[in-house]
Specification:
heterodimer, A: 395 residues, nine-stranded mixed beta sheet, 12 helices, B: 142 residues, five-stranded antiparallel beta sheet, two-stranded antiparallel sheet, 7 strands, 6% helix, globular
């Protein structure tokens, strides 16, 4: 399949430097310490001085992270193109895409994309001492379906609703979900900076504490601390650069819900799913001239363990209702046909809102993934349940 | 500030809460298409700048899914634990969330069941909120 020339961004920008902090919970450490490690690491990786950064795009920000203005001031950056998304996940790819658009159009030449956050000192999500408590009282519902007035609190409940609806629609056994946390934990055992490195068995998973039925503690990513920085520049074919050949933004609307595939959401008034052929014809594939069959390694958003299922279906890796079967028998494990979240994902590596997975894809494409290296990895994809996606290729 | 689970109430949501206080389920409808919808909007989500009218609807539907809280997040609701939340599909495919009391009890609604929706306060003196009950139940809460 040839790349669609109307989708002009493909291949024009590249990730040229990556850096990251450690990821364990460290409430006594400043979030700027995490940011410094990530930013300085990315600059060193790219062979750049900080004065060469003229764009800055930030995800998360206050009240749980560093904002763009504080970052520029603290580190002595002077970007002339700044942007920042909200303080939840889901915008990792969108930040990279904005940077790619900025360098492709001459708005900037080298953009630092940075996510630095600390959750260990702001209470537990869903509880009153956490700054996101008020979101369950957001007008017309919280960002994950919350409705505090009836007790619908915390993001996990929306994820539980999405998964129960999915299992009922297709008559699936909820216990098959174990394949996802177990596979990603297996990957984390090979990852030096993974937060969750204790081996997990099927029995451990089945016995883990119920939180909101049908989801359990081990279906949840451990909210933590840390920072990841990626520097985006015009693709020049330099050694080590990873070209952004396909990109697609986040979708929204009445037929979507962030914790369900299109067609199974909370507020929508239809049950129509994206067909497999529609899924495979989306812009991210057309821009790169690629299909799911030509992806060597995949990163999927997994703040809760069911979410990768929906991205697999909505991006055409399998048909509607087939993903729970698709992920069994090692298919998504290292050594399988389609390795997914090879560093352990948000469930076991670190809950960095997808930035950890994109960093890992860059490492895979550079051949720097050590014991996790997918042999010959040349083309990687990031896909979120919200419809955001990137295709990355070796420079 | 003391923890609260009081819903936000303003010009957009007031017809709903006024209905709740009167024990009636009232939701917005698109005048051009006649379709009900949720959440409320000042203009129809189905046609550009379409007019909206609030109308009473039958308080019944199918519980598509019911999720049960095994962990307490809201201290003001701790004494209700365990409780559940049902996603209920009404006529017109409108989906509303509703509180389910005592979800482990015999006779509690299950996913796939027809349910009746009723407005009941979670504590005395509070605004009544939507509860899902078995379709055949009656008068359990007086």
């Amino acid at each position: 399949m040839a790349a669609d020339p109307a989708l002009a961004l493909g291949g024009r920008a590249a990730i040229v430097g990556v850096g990251a902090s450690r990821f364990e919970r460290r409430p006594e450490i400043s979030v700027f310490e995490f940011a410094a490690t990530a930013l300085n690491g990315a600059l060193a990786d790219a062979g750049l001085e900080k004065e060469q950064i003229d764009g800055l795009i930030v995800q998360i920000g206050s009240p749980r992270g560093a904002d763009y203005d504080g970052i520029a001031q603290t580190f002595g950056l002077s970007p002339a193109f700044c942007s920042q998304t909200w303080s939840h996940g889901r915008f990792a790819a969108t930040c990279i895409i904005q940077a790619a658009m900025a360098v492709a159009t001459g708005m900037a030449t080298r953009v630092a994309c940075l996510m630095a956050m600390k959750n260990s000192d702001i209470g537990r999500i869903g509880e009153a001492d956490n700054p996101f408590f008020h979101e369950q009282f957001r007008e017309n519902g919280g960002p994950h379906g919350e409705e505090g007035a009836i007790g619908m609190a915390s993001p996990i409940a929306g994820a539980a609703m999405g998964f129960d609806t999915y299992c009922r629609r297709y008559g699936l056994d909820r216990e098959m979900l174990a394949a996802i946390p177990l596979t990603f934990r297996g990957h984390a055992l090979l990852t030096d900076d993974a937060v969750m490195r204790k081996p997990m068995t099927q029995a451990d998973y089945a016995a883990s504490r119920p939180i909101v039925d049908p989801l359990r503690l081990f279906d949840c990513s451990p909210v933590g601390d840390g920072a990841v920085c990626m520097i985006v520049s015009v693709a020049e074919g330099a050694p080590g650069e990873v070209r952004i050949t396909g990109a697609q933004g986040l979708r929204a609307g009445r037929e979507t819900f962030i914790f369900a595939p299109v067609g199974l959401g909370i507020a929508q008034q239809s049950t129509r799913r994206i067909s497999e052929s529609e899924a495979r014809a989306q812009p991210v594939f057309r821009m790169a001239g690629a299909s799911p069959d030509t992806i060597d390694v995949l990163g999927l958003y997994d703040s809760f363990s069911p979410l990768p299922l929906y991205a697999l279906e909505d991006f055409g890796y399998c048909g509607a209702g087939e993903a729970l079967d698709f992920v069994q028998h090692g298919r998504i494990a290292l050594g399988g046909a389609l390795p997914v979240n090879t560093a352990g994902g948000q469930l076991s590596h670190a809950q960095m809102n997808g930035w950890g997975q994109i960093r890992e894809l860059v490492a895979q494409l550079r051949g720097q993934a050590g014991p996790r290296q997918v042999a010959g990895a040349a083309r990687a994809m990031w896909a979120g349940v919200g419809g955001d996606a990137l295709i990355l290729e070796r420079g | 500030m003391a923890e609260s689970h009081a819903p936000p109430r303003n010009s957009l949501s007031d017809p709903y809460w006024a209905g709740a206080e009167a024990g009636r389920l009232v939701i917005p409808h698109c005048l051009a298409t006649g379709r009900p919808f949720w959440p409320p909007s000042p203009s129809s989500p189905f046609v550009t700048a379409g007019a909206v009218e609030w109308r009473a609807v039958a308080p019944e539907g199918e519980a598509i899914t019911i999720v049960t809280y095994r962990r307490i997040f809201q201290q003001t609701l701790a004494h209700h634990s365990p409780y559940a939340i049902a996603l209920v599909e009404l006529a017109g495919q409108v989906r509303l969330q509703a509180h389910v009391s005592a979800p482990d009890a015999e006779g509690a609604p299950r996913a796939g069941d027809r349910v009746r929706l009723r407005f009941i306060p979670l504590a005395e003196g509070e605004v009544p909120v939507l509860h899902a009950e078995p379709a055949q139940a009656g008068g359990r809460h007086g």
